[in-house]
Design a protein that fits this description.
Elements (H helix, E strand, L loop, with lengths): L3 E5 L3 H12 L3 E6 L5 H9 L3 E4 L4 H4 L4 E4 L8 H8 L3 E4 H6 L5 E6 L4 H14 L4 E5 L5 H7 L4 E5 L2 H5 L8 E4 L14 H9 L10 E5 L3 H8 L6 E5 L9 E4 L2 E6 L2 E6 L8 H16 L4 H10 L8 E6 L2 E5 L6 H10 L4 E5 L12 H7 E7 L4 H7 L5 E5 L2 H11 L5 E4 L12 H13 L2
Helix pairs in contact: 1-7, 6-11, 6-12, 11-12, 16-17
EC number: 6.3.2.9
Family: Belongs to the MurCDEF family.
Pathway: Cell wall biogenesis; peptidoglycan biosynthesis
């Protein structure tokens, strides 16, 4: 058994991994190059875990038998390169937690929609009375829950960064929603590296496991041709009906699994927009695989409340509807947001660009957007893409300024949409901070 485990990063996943490692008798050390938040420092002290912050002491880290790394630390970080040089295994918290649980693992990935689908499935499983935990990119650390709870099922949102550190972990149900360019800065700007990362969700699956995927996504379709998996393939589509497990027919959402046919009216879904039809189909198929009763699936898909910072209606001010879509950190998420709006839009966009191609949005912007507020330290790419294509395009260097300008540009019955298509780290702590500041400034109008 490996004796010394070092955890890099003392956020939710790192502290959770440390708690689990200690409960399994490992010698545990936690190291964070940044400052550890009071909440996690208190937990480290409560569990009597050794830790350091604002530095990585190499002799303490390079003496590890194995290292659990936070998904936010890139593989190119100097300490990671040194660990690899010494051939010390570096894994993710999810990989570590999976070793100590025989719960059913329902895992969701994709460039967009994974949080909504994860939360929707968790909502469905809870409603069905299953003993279920929520983990990964949302909810609490999987490792922490494995250490202290006795869940029989986990619904886990997996980012590509988490998948990169997973080797022996096995999903019982894997859902792949879509693959569009995202985080290419972490993948040497090579799309195939990012695609390979997403397809790691299939590794180790057996014939009794299920792979739920969107066949309308060309990248997924193409990649599956070269992919060997033992898992049962359960495709869904809104464009095709033949040989699908989930599809749309005459405005009805239909799912055929084994001998069972499930059907419900599309307009009864609680979440609107084409992207949410995909999320609902994926969740409905997983519900059928888990043999959840039809009425529970139908009820869950019709009463789910949605996710904070994802097309979240804030308030209407003088006839102008403000919508917080701060979670849209890439072009495709913003495409879905723009596509789902009926009224003219004043669009707040910008932040840390992850290799965005704004041309993908050009047609939608010309059709739906009346004004743009660029909210970022560097807005040159947004100007290059949209100058001359909309009536008004202005810059803002704070959320207060952005909301104020959008409010002045928007007319009654229009929408002010914060859907940045970029990461938030230039002006905000994270997308939640960005969304919360937006909501606060809107309420101050």
């Amino acid at each position: 058994m490996k004796n010394r485990i070092v955890i890099l990063g003392a956020g939710e996943s790192g502290v959770g991994a440390a708690v689990l490692a200690k409960s399994k008798g490992f010698d545990v050390f936690v190291s964070d190059l940044g400052e550890i938040s009071p909440k996690y420092k208190e937990a480290l002290n409560r569990y009597q875990l050794k830790f350091e912050e604002k530095k990585h002491t190499e002799e303490l880290i390079l003496s590890a038998d194995e290292v659990v790394k936070s998904p936010g630390i890139p593989d190119t970080a100097p300490i990671i390169l040194k660990l690899k040089e010494k051939k010390i295994a570096v894994i993710s918290e999810i990989e570590f937690a999976g070793r100590y649980s025989d719960a059913k693992m329902i895992c969701i990935t994709g460039s967009n929609g994974k949080t909504t689908t994860t939360m929707l499935l968790h909502h469905m499983l809870k409603k069905a009375g299953l003993n279920v935990g929520l983990a990964g990119n949302v909810g609490e650390s999987l490792a922490w829950q494995v250490a202290e709870q006795n869940y029989t099922h986990y619904v886990i949102e997996l980012s590509s960064f988490q998948l990169d550190g997973m080797y022996d972990f096995r999903a019982n149900i894997a859902i792949l929603l879509n693959i569009t360019p995202d985080h290419l800065d972490r993948y040497d700007y090579k799309m195939e590296n990012y695609i390979n990362s997403k397809f790691r969700i299939l590794q180790n699956m057996k014939s009794e496991d299920s792979f739920v995927f969107c066949t309308d996504d060309e990248i997924i379709r193409t990649e599956l041709l070269n992919c060997d998996t033992l898992a049962q393939l359960l495709p869904f589509s809104v464009q095709e009906e033949k040989e699908m497990c989930g599809w749309i027919e005459n405005e009805l959402l239909k799912i055929q699994y084994n001998e069972n046919l499930f059907s419900m009216d599309k307009k009864d879904l609680s979440l609107h927009g084409i992207h949410n039809v995909y999320n609902s189909l994926a969740s409905g198929i997983a519900g059928n695989v888990l043999q959840i009763r039809k009425e529970v699936i139908r009820e869950s898909l019709s009463d789910f409340q949605g996710v904070d910072h994802r097309l979240e209606k804030v308030v209407r001010v003088r006839g102008i509807q403000f919508i917080n879509d701060s979670k849209a950190t890439n072009i495709n998420a913003t495409w879905y947001a723009l596509e789902s709006m009926e009224e003219p839009i004043v669009w707040i966009v910008g932040g840390v660009d992850k290799g965005n191609d704004y041309a993908i949005l050009a047609d939608l912007v010309c059709e739906k957007v009346s004004g743009i507020v660029c909210l970022g330290v560097d807005n040159s790419k947004i100007h290059a893409a949209f100058d001359g294509k909309v009536n008004t395009i202005v810059d803002a260097s704070s959320m207060k300024e952005a909301v104020s300008q959008a409010y002045q540009i928007a007319k009654k019955e229009e929408i002010v949409l914060l859907s940045p298509a970029c990461a938030s780290f230039d002006l905000f702590k994270n997308y939640e901070d960005r969304g919360n500041q937006f909501k606060e400034e809107v309420r101050n109008l």
